[in-house]
Structure formats: structure tokens, C-alpha cells
User: Which sequence fits this backbone?
């Protein structure tokens, strides 16, 4: 297992592209010269981290803080394990592999990620699985699991994939194109501007006036989803097995999205 | 005197030298405010490029509500002048348009040009306080707020929501108008509400003409957006830390950077009035101010007020363009000639002077090669 141990982060550091595949062909001396700074000081990996590489498929980042941006961005295979918090755009654009964070993540975790799995044990900032300024899509096929609370606009403009969270702030699933979000609770106005996609929550804040109830539904697809999530997130699976009330929306836009919440 | 260090009056030259030293020695400098004439904003972008600073206009939050929606889905907008000439229907969203003065002008006239020429002009208000002196039809906004109401109107206009509805009449009027204009403040309805509004306007253009009319911010934000576009090809919140312009609205939010301790020096540019940010007391700052007292920041340098002390290119809200304003022509806040202010140099001159004193060694010298990260 290769390890990067953070000594200091005097400025925001950009770790995009630093994954097991990138390190496979590098000596520790070469890796130390990789630029990661974001100021004119031109900081390198060796300036900020103690580096230990063994060419394995797993990279551990120890002592991480919320100043470390774009960890796992572009990851295609292998495994990155982060001990600590991370900054913005965790796993941005990744296509495969797994990324786990023991602490919390900054905004835009999993943005534009097409494949692979991201697990955040703590909380996630605004727009987790959401789109960047002007970007085509947020989460785009990957799986994003948030153990704690997500901020506002969870899954904003997501196009494909699955998000699981303990809870989320206002406007979860805003501008959603497609995909699935399952959470213990949503804040106010989930699904603002969503076109398609599925939102499921045990509890939710105020619903938009452009969401309409379509009755109690006992859908096979939700049971299948529950089965597929059993190993990943048992709480989400049991939520999906409850009798559900369905709302359709957002009728402001296409209106082919849906929000399920327990009928009880 | 027009320059101060730690509240003590000094020669301007000394203050400029102190400003250059502060910025040259900083790891993460920010140049913020940018509430100034176009030449000064351009000089600020040039200085930022030289010292590896990031930029953030005072107009930031409201400006980005509009820019975010524009970048996501585009917009069909018009100008105040076109609205006055052509609109037979004006919808004022929320309270902000009623404080702008624009509605009184629109209410006083009828369309004189285009397909609605000769028709009367109707003014509608959704969720606004109204004005007894201006004839209008008022529609109350529900508890869900303006952004939700815009979505409702959009659903009604498209026929996705059944007709017996309190806002159905408003939707019918929008569809029946020959040239409708929706006046809004992006800061008030937010990025999501603005994107929904742009969607409503585009939907209406399937059947008639309709345009969005954003109220400009009072801090030159629209002009800064244009300077940023021609200087960097990107939005105003850019950073030059790595030698090339990176656009990141979250990362280069100056207030966020100050709170997280990422900036160690700042230059606040406000040759026109702008509220001072709270962080100016904690981050070592050089303030270039049109109306200085001297104790606003560590280094304060008085600069001429554009359109008052000298002619300058400034944002013209009616034309929705950058336009030249002659000296002494500024309408708002024009006052008797002030001997201190009239002797102050233009901010662009001070910024260029600061830049010439940045030692070459501390300037950004080598843009990062593409292979390095």
C-alpha cells in the first residue's frame, strides 16, 4: 500500500490525477516533484507530503484536511483511502475504482463522476453529486454514499447513478436529469426543476406546489432497488420496502421525476 | 493628504510602496471590490496576473446567481431601453423591481416600436409590494417563495398544471402578450429561480415574444464581467495563482477565502461607493477608495471618483452596456467639487504604479507546464 502523509497544507492543494495508476511508474523522488500547489510558490507533492510508494493498487492519504481538492479526480481503477477531511470536487470525473473518506467532504463531491464508488463517512458540503458552474451534469453514473448529512442541492443536475445519504439540505435533486437519490430526510423543496429521476426519503421539508400526489404505490422496481442496496446500505433498503406515497414533479419542467415517501 | 498607513497620513508614494510590498510578499493575495471604472478594473486584472492574485467583485453573489443560470441553460434577455420601446406587458417579480425606479418609467409610457406599437402597456406584479402611484395588477406570492412561484407560472404557461389556479390568469396574460418583459433581481430569486425564469421565457418564445430583464447590481458587476471575459475568457472570480486564469466561483469567493485563512493580503478597489467587507479588518488590506476616511484598512489610498473627477467608462444600466461618462456627470451622489478628491489620481494609475514596483522575482514567471499536474 502506498501512503501520502500530509505534513502541512499552507494553501489549497490540487491532487487531481494522483492515483495508484499515476504512481505506478514513478519513483518516490519523481513523485515528490509533481506540482500540487495553487499559488505562485509552486509547491510540489514532496513539499507537503511524506511519500511512501510501493506500486500497489491502493493509495492511502493520511492526515488529510479540507484544503485537499480534487482527490481521486479522474480515478479509473484501484482504491484511494483518505484518513481525514477533504476539500472540493472529491472524485470529480472518476470512471471507476473506489474512494473512501473517513471524515467530511467539501462541495461538489462526485461531480461528473461516471463510474466507481465514493464513500464519505462524515458530512458532504453543498452540491454533493452536483454540477459545477455551467457544467453539463453532476453525478453521471457513479455511486456516492454519504454517511452523514449532505448540504444543499444534493445531486444537483445529476444525470445518472445513485446517491445515498443520511440526510440532505434544501433543494435535494434540483435540476435532476435522471438517477436515484435515497436519504433519511430532505430539506425544503426537493426536486426543484427536476426533469426525470427518483427521490426517496423517510421525511422531507416543504414540498413545491409543482409536485402533485399520485397516490399510494406498491412498485416492484422499488423492491428490486431495495434488494440491490441491501449490502450497500441496509437502512436505505428497509426504507424502500415500506408502503410508499408517490409525488410527481417538477411540473414546472418536464415533470417526469418522482418523490417517494413512506405512506404511514 | 490622500494616503494613510495604519490610519496615519503619509505621502502617496510611501503608501504605494507599502501596498506593493504587501502584495509582493503574499502567498494568497486577493483583489476584491472592483467597484470602479473599466480602466481601473482592467488594471486590477493586470496586477492580479502579475502577483498571482485571485479576483472577486463586490457584486459577486447576485452576479453569480445570473451567471450560473446563464452558463447552465442560456438566457433570452433584453435591455431597459428595449422594454420601454416595445413591451405591452411587464411582469415585475418580487420586491426589488419596485425599488429600482424602472417600473415608474415603464408605467408612464406605452410601446412605440415593434409589433406591440400603439397598444397599451399592462404592468403585473408577482410577490411585490406594489406602488399606489403605479397602476398594476397584483398577484400575491404563496408561502413557498418567489422561486417556487416562477416554477408554478412556468407549469401553468406550458399547460402542465390544471387551469383553476390563482395564477392561471397571469400565465394567460403572458401567453397573450405580443412582447412581454419579466423584470427581476437575480440576487433576490437566486440561481435556481433565475434558471427557472430563463426556462419560462424560453417556453413563452414558442408562442410569442418574451424576454428577461435582470436588474443590474449597483457595484459595476456587469462591467467587471465584461472585463473578465475579454481579459481571461472567463467569469470574474478567477485566480492567477498558477500563472494562468482559473475560474472557480466557490474557491475564489473572497469572503470564504478570508474565513478559511487562505488569503494573507488583499487589495480592495472601490473608487465608487461599495460596502466594505467584514474581513477588511482581519486581512492586511490596501484600500483604494473614492471616498476615504483613512482608517478603513492598513493602507488607504484616495483615488478619483470616475464620472465625477474625470471622464470614465462605466456600466450604463439603461443601455445595459459599458458607456463613457464625462467628468462631473455622475447623477447619483454628485456633489460640490471636493478639493481632496479632485486632486486624487485615477485608481488605474495607482494600480499601474503598484505593479511597476512588484519585484520581478515575486511576480509569476512561469506558467505551469501542462505535463506537471
Assistant:
Amino acid at each position: 500500500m502506498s501512503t501520502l502523509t500530509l505534513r502541512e497544507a499552507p494553501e489549497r492543494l490540487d491532487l487531481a490525477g494522483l492515483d495508484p495508476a499515476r504512481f505506478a511508474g514513478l519513483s518516490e523522488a519523481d513523485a515528490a516533484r509533481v506540482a500540487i500547489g495553487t499559488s505562485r510558490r509552486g509547491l510540489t507533492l514532496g513539499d507537503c507530503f511524506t511519500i511512501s510508494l510501493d506500486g500497489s493498487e491502493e493509495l492511502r492519504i493520511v492526515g488529510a484536511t479540507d484544503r485537499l481538492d480534487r482527490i481521486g479526480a479522474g480515478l479509473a481503477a484501484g482504491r484511494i483511502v483518505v484518513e481525514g477531511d477533504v476539500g472540493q470536487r472529491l472524485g470529480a470525473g472518476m470512471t471507476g475504482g473506489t474512494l473512501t473518506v473517513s471524515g467530511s467532504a467539501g462541495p461538489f463531491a462526485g461531480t461528473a463522476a461516471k463510474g466507481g464508488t465514493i464513500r464519505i463517512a462524515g458530512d458532504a458540503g453543498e452540491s454533493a453529486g452536483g454540477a459545477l458552474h455551467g457544467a453539463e451534469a453532476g453525478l453521471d453514473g457513479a455511486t456516492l454514499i454519504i454517511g452523514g448529512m449532505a448540504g444543499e442541492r444534493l445531486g444537483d443536475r445529476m444525470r445518472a447513478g445513485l446517491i445515498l445519504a443520511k440526510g440532505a439540505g434544501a433543494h435535494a435533486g434540483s435540476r435532476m436529469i435522471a438517477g436515484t437519490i435515497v436519504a433519511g430526510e430532505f430539506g425544503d423543496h426537493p426536486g426543484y426543476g427536476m426533469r426525470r429521476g427518483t427521490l426517496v426519503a423517510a421525511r422531507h421539508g416543504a414540498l413545491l406546489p409543482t409536485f402533485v400526489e399520485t397516490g399510494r404505490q406498491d412498485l416492484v422496481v422499488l423492491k428490486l432497488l431495495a434488494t440491490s442496496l441491501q449490502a450497500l446500505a441496509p437502512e436505505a433498503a428497509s426504507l424502500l420496502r415500506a408502503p410508499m406515497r408517490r409525488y410527481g414533479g417538477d411540473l414546472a419542467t418536464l415533470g417526469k421525476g418522482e418523490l417517494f415517501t413512506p405512506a404511514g | 493628504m490622500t494616503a494613510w498607513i495604519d490610519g496615519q497620513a503619509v505621502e502617496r508614494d510611501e503608501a504605494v510602496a507599502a501596498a506593493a510590498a504587501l502584495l509582493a510578499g503574499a502567498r494568497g493575495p486577493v483583489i476584491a471590490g472592483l467597484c470602479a471604472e473599466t480602466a481601473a478594473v482592467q488594471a486590477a486584472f493586470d496586477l492580479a496576473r502579475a502577483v498571482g492574485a485571485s479576483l472577486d467583485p463586490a457584486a459577486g453573489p447576485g452576479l453569480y446567481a445570473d451567471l450560473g443560470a446563464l452558463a447552465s441553460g442560456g438566457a433570452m434577455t433584453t435591455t431597459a431601453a428595449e422594454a420601454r420601446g416595445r413591451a405591452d406587458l411587464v411582469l415585475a417579480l418580487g420586491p426589488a423591481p419596485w425599488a429600482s425606479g424602472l417600473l415608474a418609467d415603464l408605467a408612464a409610457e406605452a410601446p412605440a416600436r415593434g409589433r406591440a406599437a400603439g397598444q397599451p402597456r399592462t404592468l403585473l406584479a408577482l410577490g411585490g409590494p406594489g406602488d399606489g402611484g403605479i397602476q398594476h395588477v397584483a398577484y400575491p406570492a404563496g408561502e413557498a417563495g418567489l422561486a417556487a412561484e416562477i416554477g408554478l407560472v412556468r407549469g401553468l404557461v406550458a399547460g402542465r398544471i390544471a387551469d383553476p389556479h390563482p395564477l392561471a390568469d397571469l400565465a394567460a396574460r403572458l401567453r397573450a402578450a405580443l412582447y412581454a418583459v419579466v423584470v427581476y433581481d437575480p440576487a433576490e430569486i437566486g440561481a435556481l429561480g433565475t434558471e427557472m425564469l430563463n426556462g419560462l421565457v424560453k417556453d413563452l418564445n414558442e408562442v410569442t415574444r418574451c424576454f428577461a430583464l435582470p436588474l443590474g447590481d449597483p457595484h459595476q458587476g456587469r462591467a467587471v464581467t465584461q472585463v473578465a471575459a475579454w481579459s481571461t475568457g472567463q467569469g470574474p472570480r478567477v485566480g492567477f495563482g498558477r500563472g494562468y486564469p482559473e475560474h472557480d466561483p466557490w474557491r475564489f469567493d473572497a469572503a470564504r477565502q478570508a474565513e478559511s485563512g487562505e488569503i494573507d493580503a488583499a487589495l480592495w478597489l472601490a473608487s465608487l461607493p461599495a460596502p466594505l467587507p467584514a474581513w477588511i479588518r482581519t486581512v492586511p488590506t490596501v484600500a483604494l477608495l473614492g471616498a476615504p476616511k483613512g482608517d478603513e484598512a492598513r493602507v488607504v489610498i484616495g483615488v478619483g471618483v470616475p464620472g465625477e473627477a474625470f471622464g470614465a467608462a462605466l456600466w450604463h444600466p439603461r443601455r445595459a452596456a459599458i458607456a463613457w461618462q464625462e467628468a462631473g456627470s455622475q447623477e447619483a451622489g454628485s456633489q460640490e467639487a471636493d478639493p481632496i478628491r479632485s486632486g486624487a489620481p485615477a485608481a488605474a494609475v495607482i494600480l499601474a504604479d503598484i505593479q511597476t514596483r512588484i519585484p520581478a522575482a515575486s511576480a509569476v514567471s512561469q506558467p505551469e507546464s501542462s505535463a506537471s499536474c
Helices of chain A lie at 20-24, 28-32, 45-48, 220-229, 234-241. Chain A has a mean pLDDT of 96. The interface with chain B takes residues 10-12, 14, 16-17, 34-42, 66-67, 69, 88, 107-108, 131, 133-134, 153, 157, 171, 174-175, 189, 192-193, 206, 208-210, 250-253, 255 of chain A (CB under 8 Å). The first strand of chain A starts at residue 2 and ends at 6.
